[in-house]
Automatic annotation (TrEMBL):
GO molecular function: aldehyde-lyase activity; metal ion binding
Superkingdom as given in the UniProt entry: Bacteria
GO term, biological process aspect, one: pentose catabolic process
Annotated GO CC locations: cytosol
InterPro entries: Aldolase_class_II_sugar_metab (IPR050197), Aldolase_II/adducin_N (IPR001303), Aldolase_II/adducin_N_sf (IPR036409)
Name recorded for this polypeptide: Class II aldolase/adducin N-terminal domain-containing protein
Amino acid sequence: MGLPDVEGLRERIALACRVLAVTGLVEHILGHVSARTGPDSLLVRGRGPVERGLAFTVVDDVQEVRLDGSGEVPADWSAPGELPIHTEVLRARSDVTAVVHAHPPAVVAASVADLPWLPLVGSYDIPAARLAHDGIPVWPRSALIRRRDLAEQMVSALGHRPVVVLRGHGLVAVGSGEPAHAVAEAVTRALAVDSLARITLAAAATGAPLRPIPAEDLAELPDLGPAFNVASLWRHLAARAEHEGPGTPLRP
Ligand SMILES: [Zn+2]
């Protein structure tokens, strides 16, 4: 992995936080995004002295720390309480270069109802169908992940998958490759889980049985590739964040 463009990456992370807010994956002030800047370091969205929530994230909210949490950061900035989510995923998964943690209400509702994560839909949302088909793990604990040992349990549940649902809490999604791309990839994966959760809740509410789509239909759902699934969707999401967001600059 080459050296990332740190300032560009800080903007990407700040924008990703705004995207999570406008898409409803985070509410108010909870949730964070990170990206790897080296073998032992990451940029992460924390809190400054005038925290206004994810929708109003600015570049200064994103600072660089090491995997042990130390770093030369502004005195009035603090890392998220759940920093171990990010550091332990990055420690355990050398392929991962970005981590998204969010509390999407639909994902939380589906998780506490213990609804299964099945490929209920096909062409409606191909990435969601493929994620569900390949398996969406659930970490059964609802604890705040402030300690390394809790984060290690969560990472075990994640395994080598791109997402893990945290029961009664939210989700963690990861991305890989070039870090700015990875941030966008992790956001799109989080959105896919949210999309599936909404459909699952709506279908379950009818009382109808939840049945995966047939294998022959799954076989007709191609992976449309990162140019479509990540790059195009990211352009849409970035535009939404700009038009539906606060309209305040990322660098005030
Ligand atoms: Zn959380």
